[in-house]
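Encode chain A's predicted structure.
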Amino acid sequence: MDVNRVRQILSSSADIEVTYNGASVWIDGLHEDGQMATVHLRGPLEERTVIDIKELKEQ
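Encoded structure for chain A:
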C-alpha cells in the first residue's frame, strides 16, 4: 500500500478492510517517515505492531 492511500484510510469514516499477513487490522497511525505504520488486529486484542506500509493490503 502507498502512503497516500494509508492517509486516505486514516482520514475516512468508512470501515475499510485492511490486512497484514492475511489478518484483518486497524491502522492506528502513520509514522513521520511515511514508510512505517502502527497497526493492531481487529477484535479484542489491542497489541500494536509497527510495520512497513508496503506489507498492508486493502481488501
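The chain has one domain: 3-58.
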